[in-house]
């Protein structure tokens, strides 16, 4: 089975599906595909913005910790939920 290129993966994301090939090639050139282990922290509360994340497989959870240490889930996003975009960084909270 052939390995999908970053460009091919981006083409499958509804947000980018209508882009012309040249624009998609430029976007692919700026992108990186990361394979992260389960529960990996993408960013933590208070960190500066580093870009947008696309969830191609799996699920990302944005949460805050309560004063007593409980995890309060703010949102769950990803392919399993039918969404593709995560970490637009409109909230100040960690994401795993």
Strand arrangement, major sheet? 1-4
Using only C-alpha atoms, the radius of gyration works out to 15 Å
The helix count comes to 2
How far from one another are the termini? 30 Å
The tally of domains stands at 2
The percent of residues in helical segments reads 10-25%
Query: Taking all residues together, what is the mean pLDDT?
Result: 78
Give the biggest sheet: 2 strands, antiparallel
Identify the overall geometry.
elongated
User: Quick one: how many beta strands?
Assistant: 4
Q: What is the strand content?
A: 15-25%
Walk me through what this model shows.
This protein has 96 residues and is an alpha+beta fold. It folds into two domains: 1-33, no CATH class; 35-96, no CATH class. The protein is 17% helix and 18% strand. The chain has a two-stranded antiparallel ribbon. Strands 2-3 form a two-stranded antiparallel sheet. The radius of gyration is 15 Å and the shape is elongated. 10% of the residues are buried.
